[in-house]
């Protein structure tokens, strides 16, 4: 087993309390105690997402829930809009392509947040109500998009807003009802302080109507099947029962802290991490930074990959490298979920020391 603490932007380090409940004996998912658990998690998530939407749980990572959102809201003749500024936004595009849908693409340079004006210009030209797919927290660059502004625009043009909140939910503010988000996508392994294995979507009433008319092929993620089971507080297929037990505990910790306080807590972690890396002479990549993770550019002569390796080997701390063309060029530091200023300082001290050794 590798002995290191995760400072990666998902999966994240999770509280000992959550780890403990994961080893409880498994119970049967067609029994009343499972329904009780699912209701508890649904209620807690509804509060954290500020949502009156219906929530559906999947035994998959976040991408599964993105696929569920895509295949359930779209019909084969739809011309959606994908607004992206990184690798995870790109995933919406790839999903659409997999189902032979050709979206209109709004692409921002990596590191920049998507401009609401660009979205407005595109939606203005659409004749019938369209679907906008986008990302709250773009984990490949650390950008936080202005979903509140996007929601005002989609409302104005009667469009549907689908948001990948996988990395942001619980760390970056996101209020589903107030911001007019029709489908909000999430997963267990980020700021919700649980292990990977469960994803979910929270769906507005209006989106549910469109979903009933969807013609794209689907089976495992067919919400019409899910709805019949949701009414009984069940899932159609075998759920990741233990992960759900862990998720319930993780959400309880957030609710105990208080939802707004939890956002403030992450804001402090974000501010602190940004200040410290800037003091190390590093540049922050995102123009509009998220509080879930900090992404720093690495000078070319140093390179990210070997710094990450050294910090892991010497200090037992794991940061994440950049993905695809950003590999070796950035370091991604996760602080979503179970982190504290003290814990961040331990990781940042290690980074500073390794950097100093290289610069000397
Ligand atoms: N969207 C974002 C913004 C993410 O950060 C991730 C996970 N890194 C995902 C979606 C889903 O990825 P996965 O299927 O690996 O959970």
Explain this structure to me?
The chain has 360 residues and is an alpha/beta fold. The protein has helices at 16-22, 32-48, 62-73, 87-98, 116-125, 147-156, 205-212, 223-230, 241-257, 259-279, 304-315, 341-359, and strands at residues 5-6, 54-58, 81-84, 104-107, 131-135, 137-138, 143-144, 160-164, 183-187, 199-203, 283-284, 293-297, 317-318, 320-321, 330-334. It has a seven-stranded mixed sheet with strand order 2-10-9-8-5-3-4, with helices on both faces. A four-stranded antiparallel sheet has the order 11-12-15-14, with helices on one face. The chain has a two-stranded parallel ribbon with strand order 1-13. Helix 4 links the parallel strand 3 and strand 4. Helix 2 packs across helix 9. Residues 10, 61-63, 88, 135, 137, 139, 164, 166-167, 187 line the site of 4'-deoxy-4'-aminopyridoxal-5'-phosphate (PMP).
Our estimate of the beta-strand percent is 15-25%
Radius of gyration of CA atoms, rounded to a whole number: 20 Å
Summarize model confidence as the mean pLDDT.
97
Structural class of the secondary elements?
A: alpha/beta
**Global morphology:** globular
Number of helices: 12
Ions, cofactors, ligands: which are bound?
4'-deoxy-4'-aminopyridoxal-5'-phosphate
**Biggest sheet character:** 7 strands, mixed
Low-pLDDT stretches are none
Order of strands, widest sheet? 2-10-9-8-5-3-4
- Share of helix, binned: 40-55%
The number of distinct β-strands equals 15
SSE order: EHHEHEHEHEEEHEEEHHHHEEHEEEH
Determine the N-to-C terminus distance. Answer: 33 Å
């Amino acid at each position: 087993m590798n002995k290191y603490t995760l400072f990666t932007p998902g999966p994240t380090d999770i509280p000992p309390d959550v780890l403990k409940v994961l080893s409880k004996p498994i119970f049967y998912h067609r029994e009343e105690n499972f329904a009780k658990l699912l209701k508890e998690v649904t209620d807690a998530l509804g509060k954290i997402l500020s949502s009156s939407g219906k929530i559906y749980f999947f035994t998959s990572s976040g991408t599964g829930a993105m696929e569920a959102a895509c295949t359930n809201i779209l019909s084969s003749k739809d011309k959606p809009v994908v607004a992206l500024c990184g690798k995870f936004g790109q995933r919406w595009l790839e999903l659409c392509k997999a189902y032979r849908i050709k979206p209109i693409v709004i692409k921002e340079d990596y590191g920049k947040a998507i401009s609401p004006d660009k979205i407005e210009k595109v939606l203005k030209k659409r004749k019938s109500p369209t679907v906008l797919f986008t990302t709250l927290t773009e984990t490949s660059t650390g950008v936080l998009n202005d979903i509140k502004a996007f929601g005002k625009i989609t409302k104005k043009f009667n469009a549907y807003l689908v948001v990948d909140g996988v990395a942001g939910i619980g760390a970056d503010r996101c209020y589903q009802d107030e911001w007019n988000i029709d489908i909000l996508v999430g997963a267990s392994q980020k700021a919700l302080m649980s292990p990977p294995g469960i994803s979910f979507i929270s769906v507005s009433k209006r989106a549910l109507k469109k979903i009933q008319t969807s013609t794209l092929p689907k089976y495992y993620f067919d919400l019409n099947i899910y709805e019949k089971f949701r009414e009984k507080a069940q899932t159609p297929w075998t759920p990741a029962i233990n992960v759900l037990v862990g998720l319930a505990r993780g959400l309880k910790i957030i609710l105990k802290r208080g939802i707004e306080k939890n956002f403030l807590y992450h804001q402090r972690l974000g501010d602190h991490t940004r200040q410290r890396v800037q003091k190390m002479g590093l540049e922050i990549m995102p123009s509009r930074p998220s509080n879930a993770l900090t992404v720093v550019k690495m000078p070319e002569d140093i390179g990210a990959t070997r710094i990450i390796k050294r910090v892991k080997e010497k200090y037992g701390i794991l940061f994440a490298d950049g993905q695809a063309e950003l590999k070796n060029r950035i370091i991604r530091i996760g602080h979503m979920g179970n982190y504290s200023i003290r814990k961040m300082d331990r990781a940042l001290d290690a980074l500073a020391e390794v950097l100093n050794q290289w610069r000397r």
